[in-house]
Amino acid sequence: MMVFSLWSVKPHWRVLRSKLVSLIVVLLSHLALAMVPCLFPFLSLLAMLPVAALVMVSTYALAGWLRRLLDMTASAPAMVIIHILFIWGVYISVICEAIPNILDATLNMEFILLFIGLYRIFYGDPGIVPVKSTCTGAPEQTDTSDVDLPNKGSPLLSRVRCCYFCKRNVNGFDHHCPAFGNCIGQKNHHLFMVVVIGFIITEATFSLCSSQYFKVSSLANSVRFERDLPGNLVTSTLLFSCLQVLWQVPFLTWHIYCICCNIKTEEWVNWRKYPEFQLVTQPQQASPFTVTKFVNPYNKGILTNVREYLTQSLPAKHLVV
User: Fold this and answer.
1) Which end of the chain has fewer CB atoms < 10 Å from its terminal CB, N or C?
2) Distance of alpha carbon 253 from alpha carbon 215, whole angstroms
3) Is 49 domain-assigned?
4) Which is it for strands 160-162 and 182-184: parallel, antiparallel or unpaired?
5) Hey, what's the torsion of the CAs at 292, 293, 294, 300, to 10 degrees?
6) What CA–CA distances, in Å, run from 30 to 56, 60, 114?
C-alpha cells in the first residue's frame, strides 16, 4: 500500500527550515497571546477573547508577510503538532498539580489519542484511485473511464475527484486539509471526523482543567487574573483553546450537514463544474434564456445518507499498491 509522507518530497535542509519556521511562528503566537492577560489584567476572560482573536490574526498575518519577504515556508501539520505540544507542556508544567487524578489521566489520554489520530491521518491513504490520464488539479470531475479498476460502474467511482494540491485522483474527495497535510476522501473521512471531534473534546477538557487551576491556586477571582508568568501562560493557552473551539464547532457542524445531505465540500463549492449537480430550466416558455439550478442527485434522505456514510468502505481492490 502506498503511504504518504509529508516531508519526503523535499530536500532535508528545506524540511528542517520549514519546521524551524513553524516552531518560531507558534512560539511567537503564544508569546503574543500571553501578553493579553499581562497588558489587560482588568478584563474578564470573555472580554479577552476578541482581543486574543485580533492578536492571533495580526501575529499570523505578520508572520505570513515576513515568510513571503524572506522566501520561507512553514509546515501547517508541524504547526498543529507544535501547538498541541505547547499546550500539553503548559498543562504538565503548570496546571496538572491542581487537577484531580481522574481528570488528569483523562486529559493526558486525550492528548495521546489525538496524536495517534493525527499520525494516521497524516500518513493514511485518503482513497487514491489509479487513473491512466494525468491529473491536472483542475476542479473538475475525473473521467472514470480511465480508472484501471474493476467495477467501473460503482457509484463510489462516479465521485472520483482530482485534488488541486496533490494532483491525485481521490475517491469521495471532500477537500484538501492543509492542517493535516493530506486529502480527505472516502477512506479517511471517518477518521477525519473523529480527529476533529477529538480536538474539540481535548480543548474543552483543557479549558475545564485551566478553570480548575485558577480556582485551586487562587490566581483568579470571579473576573480578574494576576500578573505572573504561570497565570499568563495558563490564561493564554485557555484563550487559544476557546478560540479553536469557536471555529471548530461550526466546522464540525458543516461536515455533519454534508453527511446528512450526502454531498462533499468540493462538490458544494464547485457544483457548477459537475454536470450531475446542474438542473437547466427555462424561466418562461419559448424563452431563449436558461437558468441553471443546483440539484443534489446523491441525496436519499437524512437517515439513508447517514447510514450509507457510517457503512461506507472501499474494497481492498481500490487501494493503491
Assistant:
1) C
2) 32
3) yes
4) unpaired
5) -120
6) 9, 11, 21
Long-range contacts of 95-103 (CB under 8 A, 24+ apart): 95/209, 95/210, 95/213, 95/234, 96/209, 98/212, 98/213, 98/215, 98/216, 98/217, 99/209, 99/212, 99/213, 100/212, 103/205, 103/208, 103/209, 103/212
Range of the domain at 20: 12-126+186-263
Q: Cα 65–88–248 angle (5° rounding)?
A: 60
Number of domains in the chain: 1
252 domain-assigned: yes
Q: Cα separation of 172 and 158, whole Å?
A: 9
Report pLDDT for 22. 93
Beta-carbon contacts of residue 60 (< 8 Å; ≥ 6 apart): 25, 29
CA dist., res. 242 & res. 203, Å (int) = 7
Question: 2-41 as b/e, with b when 16 or more CB fall inside 10 Å?
Answer: eebebbeeeeeeebebbbebbbbbbeebbebbbebbbeeb
In a domain, 170, yes or no: no
User: Does some domain include residue 163?
Assistant: no
**pTM listed for this prediction:** 0.84
pLDDT of residue 275 exceeding 60: yes
pLDDT tens column, 4-21:
444 444 557 777 888 899
What's the rounded Cα separation, in Å, for the pair 209 and 65?
35
pLDDT of residue 253: 98
Q: Band the pLDDT of 227: cuts 50, 70, 90.
A: low
Which string of DSSP letters, residue by residue, matches 66-95?
HHHHHT----HHHHHHHHHHHHHHHIIIII
| C-alpha span between 33 and 233 (Å, rounded) | 8
CA distances from 147 to 19, 184, 273 (A): 37, 20, 20
167-182 pLDDT, tens digit per residue, is 889 999 999 999 999 9
Which residue reads 481492490 in cell numbers?
317
